Amino acid sequence: MEERGTWVNSQGVSSIKCPSCGLSKKSAVGAFKGKGHKLTIYCACGTTFQSQLDFRRAHRKQVKLTGFYSCSETRKFWNYMFIRDLSLTGIGFKTVNRCDLQPGDTLKLMFTLDDSQATVVEKEAMVVHANDEKVGCEFANSYITDDILGRYLVPE
């Protein structure tokens, strides 16, 4: 069974789209916050699929980008990273090797978007979680609108 991710807006409404026929329906799903976030959807076309609800503050885009990170305290060494997802408020990436980053660590990030201008983005971020090679960070000053990321992250 196919699984799709679905972002839930601040009003608890999500637009769920069938992967087969493209039928899209807005649904109030706020009641599922804090509970199971995976729904089984039965479309009128006969397709059954699962939808993983995403209650994050900002739309998170799955990406395949590369870049570098450095601990802000030292900034002597840059480490390679594979960026898995990106939003206006944060980033998820994998490191090449097991990392010793801890929640609360401050990082300097530098990566290039795969847009037509190959835009270079430099951000400061705080580690929220780190597990082996997987790291999740929240951008510093994430309340400030970032026009470049905003245009890049517009849901398709």
The major sheet is characterized as: 6 strands, antiparallel, barrel
CATH topology of the largest domain: Thrombin, subunit H
Shape: elongated
Low-confidence stretches: none
Helix content: under 10%
Number of strands: 11
Number of domains: 2
Total helical segments: 1
Estimated radius of gyration: 18 Å
- Report the top-level CATH class of the largest domain: Mainly Beta
SS-based structural class? mainly beta
Measured distance between first and last alpha carbons: 23 Å
Listing every helix as H and every strand as E from the N terminus to the C terminus, the arrangement reads: EEEEEEEEEEEH
Strand percentage, roughly? over 45%
Arithmetic mean pLDDT: 83
Can you identify the CATH superfamily of the largest domain?
A: predicted glycosyltransferase like domains
User: Could you say what the CATH architecture of the largest domain is?
Assistant: Beta Barrel
Describe the strand arrangement of the main beta sheet, using strand numbers. 6-7-8-11-10-9
What can you see in these coordinates?
By secondary structure, the protein is mostly beta strands. The protein folds into two domains: 3-54, no CATH class; 61-152, Thrombin, subunit H, CATH 2.40.10. The chain is 4% helix and 49% strand. It is built from one helix and eleven strands. It has one helix spanning 147-152, and strands spanning 3-7, 13-17, 24-28, 38-42, 48-54, 61-71, 79-86, 90-95, 106-112, 120-131, 134-139. The protein has a six-stranded antiparallel beta barrel with strand order 6-7-8-11-10-9. A hairpin with a 2-residue loop joins β10 (120-131) and β11.
